[in-house]
From TrEMBL:
Coiled coil: none annotated. GO terms for cellular component: plasma membrane. Its main location: membrane. This is Amino acid transporter transmembrane domain-containing protein. The chain crosses the membrane at residues 114-136, 142-161, 260-280, 300-322, 343-366, 382-408, 429-449, 455-474, 486-506. Carrier protein involved in proton-driven auxin influx. Mediates the formation of auxin gradient from developing leaves (site of auxin biosynthesis) to tips by contributing to the loading of auxin in vascular tissues and facilitating acropetal (base to tip) auxin transport within inner tissues of the root apex, and basipetal (tip to base) auxin transport within outer tissues of the root apex. May be involved in lateral roots and nodules formation. It is found in: Cell membrane.
Amino acid sequence: MLLKSHTVICKYLLVSRMCAYSDHNNNRTLFNYMIEVKNKIEVAKHPFSIVSVDKYRETTFYNDDTPALQKKEKKRKERKLLKGKKKMTDDAAAAKQKNIDDWLPVTANRNAKWWYSAFHNLTAMVGAGVLSLPYAMSHMGWGAGTVVLILSWIITLFTLWQMVEMHEMVPGVRFDRYHELGQHAFGEKLGLWIVVPQQLVVEVGTCIAYMVTGGKSLKKFHETVCPDCKDIKTSYWIVIFASVNFVLCQCPSFNSISAVSLAAAVMSVAYSTIAWVASIKKGVQPDVDYSLKTKSTANTVFNFMMALGEVAFSYAGHNVVLEIQATMPTTPETPSKKPMWKGVILAYIGVAFCYFPVAFIGYYMYGNTVDDNILITLQHPFWLIAAANMFVIIHVIGGYQIFSMAVFDMIETYLVKQVKLPPCFTLRLVARTVFVALTMIIAICIPFFGSLLGFLGGFAFAPTSYFLPCIIWLKLYKPKRFGLSWMVNWSCIVLGVLLMTLSPIGSLRNIIVTAKDYKFFS
């Protein structure tokens, strides 16, 4: 009996020795085995064996290795706790980011229909500058003018297609803003500095120009319907125009201004149609002359450069195209680019319907005697000219909302994400009201701001509409060198750089020459 007990004890000691070199889980398995051993010893009534097993019970889990095991277990639990806290923090951050995105104007609503894209793009693209296209033709002539207008239409349609395609080029990611696409291509900081300054120049400059255009169109409407009334300064009309925008700018998102944008798109087609139909009705002028307006070589060259800028200003919609596409829903089966592109095609058909008849028919009927606004040249019938000016007013109200909405998104994103202000109605009210007030004040101070459009057109519109999308495309897709895509993109880049270089020179020279006629606060 004693021999048998000692045999069991030896087994126990052997197992105990193994426990010192086993991990925690194996220890537990061995402990279960020792319980069986203890039961056998208890049956043998061997007191030493019972003490030995009790000692094993104490030393197995409280031996010299226990502090290390406990420390390891403690660290494991701490890591698990930290991981849980990090997950909770990430979830909270994601929820906070979603709340901000749901509040910002560009990403607040993603339920837009494809036709929203059509009239948003048409409103953004067709500006009151269409009425100056015959004047631009008079500085370029039939050959160059026709080539520049058609080539600009083709190039900008191509670059707009590129931007629509790149909106969701990364699976699961949407580049909702122009600068986000730039950051993806060039890096966080460089992309921001490349895109945002140009985008702001275009959008803020367009808003100021529309303030001036709206005020002047109101003045023309008043003078047309009431020629005997007392003359009112343009500054007051700009304030009246701004008062409408003070109210409409509080619309929270792109989709909330859809009705305004639709009305603006219809009005742009309407006043463009009035311009060329009334020109046809008036007929070709007896003394029409298609030679260039100026005989001096220097003036001819500089005016040609300025006309390039005016054409560039006519294609400014690229600066808000990604923001418009951000309002479209997307699924793996139907990505947002499909409804967006359908709307873009319809919008560009509308652009062609507005631009080409006004430019070609207006120039054909009046030649180089056409004014910088063809409605001024028409003059009669009064009621039609008054209606056209009112249509211009409604259109520039919608255009102001489209371009300012992208600026509001930048301002509110900065205030909420960088300054850490809470997203609320008060923040939106103050920020947007201040912006509208600033554009109004600048428009009042510089009512000849429209003369700067040629300069702005070349300096900022040309890069963002003509060649920056091509550079981003080459950077991201890396097409085969000297392949069709590579050559087309580089051709657009070269033409865009030429436009950016030449048009500001001509416009700046024209500003200097005519500066004596400018009156501040007029």
